[in-house]
Amino acid sequence: MTNWMPDLTGHKGPRYRALAEALAADVRDGRLAAGTRLPTHRDLAWKLRVTVGTVSRAYAEAERLGVIVGEVGRGTFVRPPANATAMMPPDSLGEAADPAFIDLTINRPVAAGEKAVMAAALGELATEPDLAALLDYQAPAGRPEDRIAGAAFLQSCGLATTPEQVVATAGGQHAMACVIGAVTRPGDNLAVEALTYPGLRALANLLHLRLVPIAIDEHGLIPEALDAACRTAPIRALYTMPTLHNPTTATMPAARREALAELAQRHDLALIEDDVYGFLLDVPLAPLAHYAPERGFYLTSASKSLVPALRVGYVHAPKAHIDRLAAAVRATVYSAPPLMARIVARWIADGTVERLVCEKRAETRRRNGMARRILAYAELAGDSVASHFWLTLPEPWRADDFVAAARRRGVGIIPASAFAVVRQPPEAVRICVGAQTTAERVEHALVRISELLASPPERYLSVV
To answer: 84-112+354-460 sits in which CATH class?
Structure first.
């Protein structure tokens, strides 16, 4: 436990708020590192000559802001950075600035034909007979043709849906914001995998939600752990990636999906399934909404399966929630971008989506196989169809040190702390083989990582 003593000079307002602001500032400025255990309420109250209640309110405010997390029976700890940008390399270190740098941080399956089909689509878009209508405001839930196309797209993902149950959004992150914003209120508890998508953590901070980490294993989220969490505190919803989980690539078997549906009914939970990587499977698995049709929300987007520049997503929801989702779209972006939505709808209808998806599957498998050959001796967790894999580091490597050492060798990868909702993330890293670069450059990067794994970390740590 740290002997942290905040400097409240210059912080105005109530004492508890000044204390929370000082705590946030010290975390932001690096004076309090992620994982640091803070003084108890009583100890800090004694040091500052304030009441225990004042410290409790300050800690509660800091936790609401996502700065700290309290663990029953263990104490209060500084959280890892919650924003997605914390895991991304600065522009000055990226490939655009340094051609030798190979960025394996972006989880983005590639296809050779993307550029050509997009160029053709833009030309066709200029000659659309109803172009004037596309340039106008659209219905928040999407034009009828967009919802029909979305229903067809979701059906190819293994989901039985209808256009009336589909809402078009401005990408997957926007879909998450609309769904989670529609089913939760500030202060609610949102259950997530103990390792989860960083964009979800940033969104939870924005919406003032408390994230409740649920234990995972090689098959994904553990239903018994969710049941225990629901018995401990009221939980409004579960956000999960049951297929090719980010970052571990675990895929949840059918029996476990059924168990989650039963728990959702028992504990009155909304089930929010993010399936942006499910298209990489040859045969889709039945989504959670199949097992819990009145509670299941399913979202995906064109960013991973087609092209990131197409900011179009689709949400399937129970009919009772469609109006609320449409209101969320209207309140945020008014409607999905109609020109982009038209391109995606055309690609769904003319088979372009199927062709690009097949290309991405084939290229992803080729790169995944290459990674397993180069890192055959390493402790890899990952589905052979996934565009990323999870590398558990050997002792005495630590994830943050390994990431820093890899960057010095010109390779960008992501530490477990970027995904962690718990205080002590595993010593592991995510490596994206589907990065937007050539397979040859990915191979060079993997060789550098292999060489790094074979070297002791002491060579790369500075002595201060």
So the answer is: alpha beta
